[in-house]
């Protein structure tokens, strides 16, 4: 019944992007250098925190549950900083997508950056587009084996380095490197490197655009987050169509130049493509010379002239490719360019392009920017008001109070003291607001507690109200517990309550 | 029905399938996706062979690897027990009074003791150790049989007024209902109630009755006697309450609170741990009692001043436990 020739599955069509140069290509080289540099170098930056703490600037210490970032140290209970950064990343993606479309995909996504790097390797070894294409189609000769295997070998080296760099974020990098080389590192390090090596090698070398099209959810999400005011890579079809090439085209253009009116100072004086000229009635050719440069450089293997499409990661290489060609044929740049959909009717009617910044500065983007800044400022604020002394107080509720033999009433509190500094600190505990209450610490003779370096200590604190005192006789009395750093004199307090005897 | 054509809107070929005019575009899945699908099937087969998978009547198939979550948990428990063996051993070897000097051992004792307490003691003394009517509050500073860590350990080990352990702490308050008249009991109740506010135990309306019947155990000063577990009657703590009815019942029938000998059920290390835990609940006595502690305690006091000689294993597996035993032997020698 069904047609046998209908296949439900399609093999990947190999793509051989051509080398291109231009403004966006240069920008992408610099971004690649920056992002890869950050990724590979960060774990090796040292940061002195004193003798008892790690000296790695960025370290996720899972075993001790600490996150170090230069001068910032985050404890597990401060995970809201990480949550805040994730919120910022989310809102930041909203902002960039609303303003510039899939700029993340095109410039900074690891998949894009590593594919770019792998393509560079491939091109250096096997040559540019046509050479690679020929090599791909050629029979397996020793030369082909050599070229292919050396490409793969370098990819594999990059992949190992990628997986290798990742584990350095979780342990002291120099020590771990020695351990890795001498085969003394923990198994989880090798497993992690193995998995990341495999994903880097396969995704960057062989899956490439398949990852973006079939595996990544982001393209689908972004469809919902872009609107017609979003700047995105697009083909000015109103300028380019009808496309054509060769002698015929030049002749038509020459004819039209002699009769066509000047439009908005834009050269050359060709009537709007596809629109019959009011004077001559002649329909001129578009600016697109159908050279396929934009298709040949596309790492996704698509034709941007088909319009916006899910497979387009807006890497902007087609803009560079087209600009190069436009310069050669003496036409203005920007046939393929960052354009908003809302520009189409306006420009098609002969209006001037709207400058990019006016697309970027619009209420929606400003709202996202405001939200993003708000979260960021909130985090910074929270970071700077982080107390040097932290104390939490949990009153013991089972029982709420204890009567002692002399009739006095005692309450107990579990007090947790945090010492985030690189040396042990001695804290003095005291109470205010309820005169006459005695403070004692279980197991300590005085009212001082020493908390070791970079750790927390739980102590049980007793407040005792003498028999007959107000606090002993009333059901609840407000109490303020103070903790003071004996060395620096810094103080912090927590309010709690004292439960007296319920006299009914 | 099979009528393939190019869909004019999308430019995509249709599969030729049409249902009431609704057609399907032919957007083929990538072939690697199919391979991935086959891969998961293959993995499923391998998994079923390697790991427990098929439910049978009495259990699941074992799998070639013999992997079992229960065995893993058992192994983890065994590993923890093994890692704690040295600590557990030193709990039984070290003088209980010295445990707070060693942070690691103390922390271990407190946490282990808390677990023992929740399992075995909380039924009577409450999960917060606050006790109940007839069951002593372990948080306060009043102790019937003594509040040093060794007193507590003895009480835990042998219990109170039980018949199972010949070494159990024992005493018995007579049922004065058979000895005294109701009026005399009422007079004594009023007398006892007035003791905490400074009433001289031997004078006043009930003074003579108290002198004749109560001082043998509770003392001339009514401050109790720990050897007999007789409570202090001048303090603010009343195990059986201090209302007229409660005191009348206590005097008339005599209380007989029983505690089982936990030494039979708990290991010596657990007894030590729970004793240290209870001692640290806020009422523990650090002072040496009159006659229940060896005079050799002087040697113990000296020990902490020289940390190197504190008889604890610094690390698990250390042989420090033997040193500790040696110190205790010295103490005993000093007593004799």
UniProtKB/TrEMBL annotation, chain A:
Domain 4Fe-4S ferredoxin-type positions: 279-307
InterPro entries on file: 4Fe4S_Fe-S-bd (IPR017896), 4Fe4S_Fe_S_CS (IPR017900), Cyt_c_oxidase_cbb3_FixG (IPR014116), Electron_Trans/Redox (IPR051684), FixG_C (IPR032879), Ig-like_fold (IPR013783)
One term under GO cellular component: plasma membrane
Pfam families: Fer4_18, Fer4_5, FixG_C
Segments passing through the bilayer: 27-45, 79-100, 152-171, 183-206, 366-385
Cross-referenced Gene3D superfamilies: Immunoglobulins
Protein name: Cytochrome c oxidase accessory protein CcoG
Gene: ccoG
TrEMBL record, chain B:
Organism: Palleronia sediminis
Residues that hold heme c 2 according to the record: 173, 214, 217-218
Chain intervals with Acidic residues compositional bias: 306-321
GO biological-process terms attached to the record: oxidative phosphorylation; proton transmembrane transport
Cofactor (UniProt): heme c
Pathway in which the depicted protein is active: Energy metabolism; oxidative phosphorylation
Superkingdom, natural source: Bacteria
Start and end residues of each stretch annotated as Disordered: 1-20, 285-323
Gene3D superfamilies on file: 6.10.280.130, Cytochrome c-like domain (1.10.760.10)
Annotated cofactor note: Binds 2 heme C groups per subunit.
Binding site for heme c 1: 121, 124-125, 259
Protein name stated in the entry: Cbb3-type cytochrome c oxidase subunit
Segments forming domain Cytochrome c: 108-196, 201-282
Signal sequence range: none
InterPro entries: CcoP_N, CcoP_N_sf, Cyt_c-like_dom, Cyt_c-like_dom_sf, Cyt_C_IC, Cyt_c_oxidase_cbb3_su3, Cytochrome_c_Oxidase_Subunit
Alphabetic keyword roster: Cell inner membrane, Cell membrane, Electron transport, Heme, Hydrogen ion transport, Ion transport, Iron, Membrane, Metal-binding, Oxidoreductase, Repeat, Respiratory chain, Transmembrane, Transmembrane helix, Transport
């Amino acid at each position: 019944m069904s047609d046998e020739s209908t296949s439900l599955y399609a093999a990947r069509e190999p793509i051989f992007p051509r080398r291109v140069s231009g403004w966006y290509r240069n920008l992408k080289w610099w971004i690649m250098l920056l992002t890869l540099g950050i990724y590979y170098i960060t774990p090796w930056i040292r940061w002195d925190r004193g003798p008892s703490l790690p000296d790695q600037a960025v370290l996720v210490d899972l075993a001790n549950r600490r996150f170090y970032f230069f001068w910032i140290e985050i404890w597990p209970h401060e995970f809201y900083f990480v949550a805040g950064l994730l919120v910022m990343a989310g809102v930041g993606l909203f902002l960039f997508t609303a303003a510039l479309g899939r700029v993340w995909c095109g410039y900074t996504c690891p998949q894009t950056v590593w594919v770019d790097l792998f393509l560079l390797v491939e091109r250096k070894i096997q040559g540019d587009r046509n050479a690679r294409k020929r090599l791909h189609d050629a029979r397996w000769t020793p030369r082909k084996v050599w070229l292919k295997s050396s490409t793969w070998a370098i990819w594999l080296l990059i992949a190992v380095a990628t997986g290798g760099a990742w584990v350095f974020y979780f342990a002291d990098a120099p020590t771990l490197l020695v351990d890795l080389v001498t085969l003394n590192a923990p198994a989880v390090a090798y497993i992690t490197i193995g998995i990341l090596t495999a994903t880097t090698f396969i995704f960057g070398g062989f899956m490439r655009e398949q990852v973006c099209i079939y595996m990544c959810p982001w393209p689908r999400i972004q469809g919902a987050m872009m609107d017609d005011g979003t700047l995105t890579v697009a083909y000015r079809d109103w300028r380019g169509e009808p496309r054509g090439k060769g002698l015929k085209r030049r002749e038509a253009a020459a004819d039209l130049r002699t009769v066509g009116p000047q439009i908005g100072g834009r050269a050359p004086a060709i009537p709007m493509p596809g629109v019959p000229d009011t004077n001559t009635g002649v329909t001129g050719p578009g600016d697109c010379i159908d050279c396929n440069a934009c298709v040949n450089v596309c790492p996704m293997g698509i034709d941007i002239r088909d319009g916006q499409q899910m497979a387009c990661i807006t890497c902007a290489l087609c803009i560079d490719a087209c600009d190069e060609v436009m310069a050669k044929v003496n036409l203005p740049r920007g046939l393929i360019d960052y354009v908003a959909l809302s520009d189409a009717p306006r420009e098609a009617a002969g209006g001037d392009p709207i400058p990019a910044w006016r697309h970027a500065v619009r209420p929606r983007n400003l709202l996202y920017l405001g939200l993003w800044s708000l979260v960021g400022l909130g985090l910074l604020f929270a970071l700077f008001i982080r107390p040097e002394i932290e104390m939490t107080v949990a009153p013991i509720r089972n029982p709420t109070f204890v009567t002692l033999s002399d009739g006095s009433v005692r309450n107990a509190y579990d007090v947790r003291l945090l010492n985030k500094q690189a040396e042990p600190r001695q804290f003095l505990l005291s109470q205010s607001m309820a005169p006459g209450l005695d403070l004692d610490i279980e197991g300590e003779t005085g009212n001082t507690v020493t908390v070791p370096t970079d750790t927390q200590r739980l102590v049980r604190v007793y407040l005792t109200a003498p028999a007959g005192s107000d606090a002993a006789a009333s059901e609840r009395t407000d109490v303020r517990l103070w903790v003071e750093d004996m060395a620096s004199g810094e103080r912090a307090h927590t309010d709690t309550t004292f439960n007296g005897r319920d006299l009914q | 029905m099979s009528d393939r054509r190019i869909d004019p809107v999308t430019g995509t070929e249709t599969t030729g399938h049409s249902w009431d005019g609704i057609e399907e575009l032919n957007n083929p899945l990538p072939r690697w996706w199919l391979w991935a699908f086959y891969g998961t099937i293959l993995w499923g087969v391998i998994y079923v062979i390697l790991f427990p998978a098929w439910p049978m009547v009495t259990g699941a198939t074992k799998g070639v690897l013999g992997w079992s979550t229960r065995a893993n948990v058992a192994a983890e428990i065994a590993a923890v027990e093994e890692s704690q063996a040295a600590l557990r051993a030193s709990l039984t070897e070290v003088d209980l009074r010295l445990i707070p000097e060693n942070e690691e051992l103390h922390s271990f004792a407190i946490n282990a003791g808390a677990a023992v307490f929740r399992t075995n003691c909380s039924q009577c003394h409450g999960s917060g150790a606050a006790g109940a009517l007839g069951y002593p509050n372990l948080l306060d500073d009043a102790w019937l049989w003594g509040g040093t860590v060794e007193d507590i350990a003895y009480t835990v080990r042998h219990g109170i007024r039980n018949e199972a352990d010949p070494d159990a702490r024992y005493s018995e308050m007579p049922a004065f209902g058979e000895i005294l008249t109701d009026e005399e009991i009422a007079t004594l109740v009023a007398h006892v109630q007035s003791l905490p506010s400074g009433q001289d135990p031997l004078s006043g309306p009930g003074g003579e009755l108290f002198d004749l019947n109560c001082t043998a155990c509770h003392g001339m000063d009514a401050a109790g006697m720990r050897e007999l577990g007789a409570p202090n009657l001048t303090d603010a703590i009343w195990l059986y309450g201090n209302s007229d009815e409660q005191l009348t019942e206590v005097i008339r029938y005599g209380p007989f609170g029983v505690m089982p000998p936990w030494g039979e059920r708990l290991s010596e290390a657990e007894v030590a741990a729970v004793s240290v835990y209870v001692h640290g609940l806020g009422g523990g006595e650090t002072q040496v009692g009159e006659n229940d502690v060896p005079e050799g305690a002087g040697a113990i006091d000296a020990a902490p001043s020289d940390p190197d000689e504190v008889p604890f294993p610094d690390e698990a597996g250390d042989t420090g436990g033997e040193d500790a035993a040696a110190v205790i032997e010295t103490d005993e020698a000093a007593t004799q």
